[in-house]
Hints:
The complex is a heterodimer. By secondary structure, chain A is an alpha/beta fold. Chain A has helices spanning 15-26, 55-58, 64-77, 124-127, 140-148, 165-176, 195-202, 262-267, 304-317, 396-401, and strands at residues 2-11, 32-35, 51-53, 62-63, 81-83, 87-91, 96-101, 104-115, 119-121, 137-139, 157-161, 180-185, 209-210, 213-219, 226-231, 244-247, 250-253, 257-259, 291-293, 328-332, 336-340, 343-344, 348-356, 360-369, 372-382, 388-394, 405-409. Chain A is 22% helix and 35% strand. Chain A is globular. By secondary structure, chain B is of the alpha+beta class. Chain B folds into two domains: 2-47; 53-114, Roll (CPE0013-like fold). Chain B has helices at 35-46, 79-87; strands at 2-7, 16-22, 25-30, 49-50, 53-59, 65-70, 74-75, 90-92, 100-102, 112-114. Chain B is elongated, with a radius of gyration of 18 Å. Chains A and B meet through strand 4, helix 3 and helix 7 of A and strand 5 and strand 6 of B.
Amino acid sequence: MIEHSVDVAVIGGGPAGLAAAVSARENGAKDALILDRNSWLGGILPQCIHDGFGVEETGISMTGPEYANMYTNAVKKQAIDVWNETMVLEFNKKLEITAVNKKGLHKIKTKSIILAMGCREKTRWNVLIPGDRPSGIFTAGVAQAFINLYNILPGKNVVILGSGDVGLIMARRLKLEGANVLGVVEILPYASGLPRNVVQCLDDYDIPMFLNHTITCIKGRGRLESVTIAQVGKNMNILPETKQEIKCDTLLLSLGLIPENELSKGAGIELDNITGGPVVDQDYMTSISGVFACGNCLQVYDTVDALAVGAKHAGKYAVTWKSKNDGLKVKSGKDVRYVVPQKITKKGTTRFTLRVEKPMQNVTFYVKSGGDEIFKKKLRWVNPANMVEINVDISDKMINSKKDLEVSIDG
Amino acid sequence: MVEKEITCIVCPIGCKIFVRMDGTNIKKIDGYKCKRGIGYARSEVLDPRRVLTSSVLVSNGEWPLVSVKTSKPIPKNKIFDVLKIIRNTKVKAPVKIGQVIIKNVAETKIDIIATKSVK
């Protein structure tokens, strides 16, 4: 085993890993190392050729490759070491990483580790769609890589299941590449992607969206031949009289993303059942002191801009961490699906990121410490697709009271 | 007087903006949360435009394609004309990010530029 040592090691060279590594160096890390299994930096960004990246962060709308380029330049400027085509096998509580690449097996001793492994797409088997098992069924991100990186059109007559942003963006992309996009099927009564993507990806090209609908059957021998869609009732029960068969050769799945945390589990890091990511404190430190988490392996973000804010935060605190005390728990109350961070161990202004359970209008967010209201904010509308951010001042008194915090909505 | 409802696409918030019009005269714009919304709403009712992104074939490169975009938003009704030109274009590696791939595409006075480098 080849031995190395580094101040800060970042697992994953996607947008979160790049932002975290740059921030760690800007905040005084002596040296930093990015480990990534791909042959390039930027993770998913090179295949996201559409624009809209960086608007909140820089005021300029960039494409994915341009956004990646901005950060790879910063990585070079900060003299951050990059190992591509390197697979991290495990890490442990002593902050040692085991990784493998063409040069051999490596042990890397670190002062802190930042997790930025990202997420992966849900597949047909996560939602169990009945029917045949023909070819022609892809996750939206795989189809995106085929078209935008490898110049392969996955099919000609396409149905998309799920209205997440990648699904909406692929509907437009396929249309622009000459495919016939027959519709986007969404089981919920509203789109799960951002409003701007419904407008510029579906409405601009008259692509229909079937809300309150799902796919009940897949047919095809060899290649996909058709899917059957049906409306769902109030309890998500299928209404058989609404069934219709749509002839198609390709089905794209945009069903949501799963944070990738096999490495975290292996090290014994505590995970949040709702976010699928590590439980973290206000510095984004996980249940193992010195291990931080950011990006889509912490929580699935809706924009790279908000993701970069969190990643820079993790990078900053990874440089100066101290062993943690117990602190307060942050709980999700009425109509709040989850809150990150899940723990508070010190005073100061703390940025909470959270998602609501359902679309609502004119709501008031409350943060309570043992029943006492410590924060209140009104919002005109909220939507599960848009992450909500609130900044709450945490005092020593709250920490010392040992009373858990609760974030809730009373709309 | 007609009122048009527009969903702003400038940022992820997606404000619902209402534009009241008398023929082609804009009488009132409201519902926006920032100034960029006013500009978008005005353009959307009078001259709707989009930034178009696509990719161009590359020969002898490390990748078969280079991602490209229009240097400015192009009129919506020119999108498929521009795509046709893009489809018939091939460039030789290396390509540098920001490089002009097609000048004045479809007489729009707007260029197609590379959004990544391909060695």
